[in-house]
Amino acid sequence: MKLLKTMTAVGVIAGLLVAAGGAVAADLNLYSDQVPWHDGMAGLASIGSKASGLNITLQEITPTDKYQAFMQTSLASNNLPAMFKWWNGNQLSDLVSTGAVADLSSYWDQAIKDGNFTQQERDLVSVDGKPYGILLNVADWVVFYNTHDFEKAGISAPPKTWDELMADCDKLKAAGFTPFNAPASGGWMPFIWFSQLVLGTNPDAFVGLTSGKVAYNGPEVHKAFQIWEDMYKKGYFTDPREQDDSKFFANGSAAMFLIGDWHSGSFATAGMKPGVDFKSFLMPSVTPDVPQSIIVEASPIVVSKAALDGNADLGKAVTALMQPDASNMLGKTVQVYNGNLKGTPPNAIVAADNQLVADAKPRQLVRWWEAVPPQIQGDLVAQMGSFMLNPTAANGEKVMDQMQQINSDYWKNK
Known about the structure:
The protein is of the alpha/beta class. Helix content is 48%, strand content 14%.
């Protein structure tokens, strides 16, 4: 079972079994690493409990790397929670290969028949044609921008090309703002700009990185690193050591933030009004000859096969979480959107992003985090983070070579 090889620090994490409050097999827990979504996740647990008559309790572990390690330990001990938030792409495929999570085909068949979702949404959480997740979040990765910062810098409209974006960065610097909020926190965020710059220069190479066909120290990655280094030299990024990932954008000192549009809820919580204090645009390709691409992120809640087999009423919770009421509750509490066609987009930003994508028709790709083999995900992200802390050409060469060593070691055994 490949997933069992993902993390090796099982002994370190074992203590979390007690601290997280989820070591008893009889417990019906919903686990999450999304503490900022606490109210929404608690709401889902409540909806599931009411529909099923079961007591489904929310449990949270953060940051993401500790959450993944906890699930790793739970899987190894045959003690998976009844329901837990996960990722799609290779992350989901690897989990499904263990046989530990439930096939939700019958629930999706009914949800599509009822008009709540389409086949496209089902495909986001499917492996070999079978769905294994309840959609929690479907997000477009966009560039948020502070409308007041742009106005003070004399920028009347968001950029349409990379050259316009770079010119706007210079205007923002001149006006006293850092162009981009770019934290390296949470055990995952360093991949954001790395993957975006590969995507923006060569989308096919982006896909090739996740399948082992493109080297992490090849010419395609070198080009991305050169741009990344140059942007650091020009002072376009905030201090990566800041652990509050939205601090600089929320307080207006950083004018833009490349992130999934699920983050719009965090900004709203911080007092920024969606569509007024901040808006969004699609990241342009680095050169006009490269087709525009966008990352579409999908987060599922997966269900333990053992829990579903052993608790027939748990299926009622699954059905309830795929209804418009659950979608609208998420929108109202944490302003994320799960793609339910009968649900209401939670704010003006998400509605606008849906329209931006519909109009631009960019190539839609699975996020690097979900697409890369999970066995090497953490080690690769750690290398990217080390570059962000020391963004020099020499360190970039070292990082690329180390990433490729990690990559080649994995794929040569396939």
